[in-house]
Records
---
Amino acid sequence: MVEVPEYLLERSRQRRAELTGTELADSGAAAPAPDTAPVAASTPPAAAPAPIVEAAPPPPPEPDPPYVEAARARKRMPYWAASVMVFLPLWAIFYVGMLEPPDSDELVLADNGAAVYSTCASCHGADGSGTATGRQLSDGELLLTFGPAPGFDGLAHHLSWVYLGTADTKRLGLDFYGNPDRPGGQREVDSFASGMSGFSNLSLEDLVSVVYYERIVHGGLDAETAAHEEEMLLALVADAPAFETGSPDEISALLTESAEGHGIDLAAGE
Ligand code: HEC
């Protein structure tokens, strides 16, 4: 029989002492002298408490695997973490609350607009960077054409453009679209690829949503202006006016009317 090394026996004794709660001194006293046969080493002391049930001596414990050693050596949670943990459940409640879908009758322009924009992405690119068949909207291009500017209702012009598209804008007798003071000159209708179809088939909700989406995502409209325009658009949706021609002037007048009816401060957008 291979002799069990003394250090393993010693560890075994200590382990057992830890498990049973027996003082090391006791087990030491009860344990046989080191030169006794290994088997006797685990004989419980006569007055040992009940927990020791094994009749046969257990094999000496294996040395701890490395991951156990690592777990022991690992740093414990710092004391300040306790105070962080206290707020975790609170945070979880907020988080879940945020995930909840909005009421079904609540129109979220940006979300709805992202879905509608999938019909525009084939020409304008998912990120608005443009393709061979549709103009670039990103990198400031959209707001140069349809951004708010003194004396120019960019929001109304944008809505009108998407509603009418190339052919219907021309049909209204307009040869140009967008800001007349656009750097590099005002946009000429039908000046890119084979033009753009109008989207008068969209519901008013979808039309204002996709326009809002383009303005904030591709245009990078500042938060304050975006909030103001969102209010204007939601007021328009609430009033649900029918467009006669969908011209920029008509839509501009309708936007103003709805805003006034809903107590929106028009000066806030300037
Ligand atoms: C068939 C390709 C195509 C699709 C689909 C398309 N567009 Fe266009 N878009 C164009 C083209 C081409 C122009 C330039 C039209 C012109 O010069 O008459 C344009 C111009 C624009 C502009 C003006 C950009 C500028 O700065 O001049 C906006 C805004 C715009 N489109 C929004 C949309 C929206 C919103 C949709 C989806 C509801 C959409 N487009 C779908 C091709 C497309």
Note: The two ends are 95 Å apart (CA to CA).
---
Amino acid sequence: MMAIRYPKSIVAALGLSIVISLFFSCENNNSLELKRYYSEGAAIYQTHCLNCHAADGSGLLALIPALNDSTFLKNNKASLACAIRYGLKRPIKINGKAYDENMPAANLAPMEIAQVITYMNNSFGNQLGMVTMDEVEADLKSCK
Ligand code: HEC
């Protein structure tokens, strides 16, 4: 009996297409997850944040900072969960302007914090990707 021998190039192409399709299905899962976090986060934002930071994230005059300072959000990524969970009261600079009012604590679960940060990080002109529940749980362990 003769074994069928496929040319190497066909085997290689097949292998490559499997790798590519795995890669894209992963990509799709990630962006699906991001979309899910984002839409849950939008609802949480409306209930817990919109009153102060406004629907478009623009804040309020000199009292409440806007949420569109991507550089601040990126540099303070690891402490955002703590600020949301336990409140924030320290002088900060947002878009070059100084703020020092009190942000109250929000009684949210780690998953909800991850969702609302993911919403904020991908709204108001920010494009900062997603923050997972695991990251939030880790960040909450080192709150100061
Ligand atoms: C009662 C009003 C109020 C509510 C409600 C509120 N914030 Fe804030 N937020 C503030 C104030 C005031 C500051 C500035 C605090 C400071 O200067 O220390 C702030 C600061 C921030 C900052 C850091 C500065 C910036 O502009 O990036 C983030 C991020 C933030 N809030 C996100 C949220 C999110 C998310 C929610 C909802 C879970 C929320 N806030 C709810 C008033 C509020």
Note: The chain has a mean pLDDT of 92.
